[in-house]
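Re: the request from the purification team.
They wanted to know what the chain is likely to look like in 3D before they choose a buffer screen. I agreed to run a prediction and write the result into the notebook, where they can find it.
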Amino acid sequence: MTRAALALFALLAACGGRPAGYADADVAAGATLAADPKVFVLDVRTPEEHARGFLKGATLIPIDQLSARLSDLPADKSRPVLVYCAVGGRSARAAKLLAADGRTAVTNLAGGIVAWTAAGRPVEKPAP
């Protein structure tokens, strides 16, 4: 990520603002997005959290590695991304970072996987 993008991200985070291309979704809207094969589902929790259950098809990139691993995301920055964490805080930061990096369709799952499971939505478990 360029220094300018990092500076923009820091400014937006400090101000609480949302860059263009960022939105929040409740569980129902998140489920619709997660079911779309065109949507890249991104889990920004820790590997230990991910191992307890994750959204189907999710890619794990912990929040503390995200800025260094932006190249692991789809090259097409217009491809929709649904990002989630445990309760929505880390994923909101991640969504802002991705939008500041030029992604045009980033959605944060409000309430995270906690809200997801509370709504009775399914999670996947890693193969034993």
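For the purification team: The longest strand covers residues 22-25.
Please add any questions underneath this entry.
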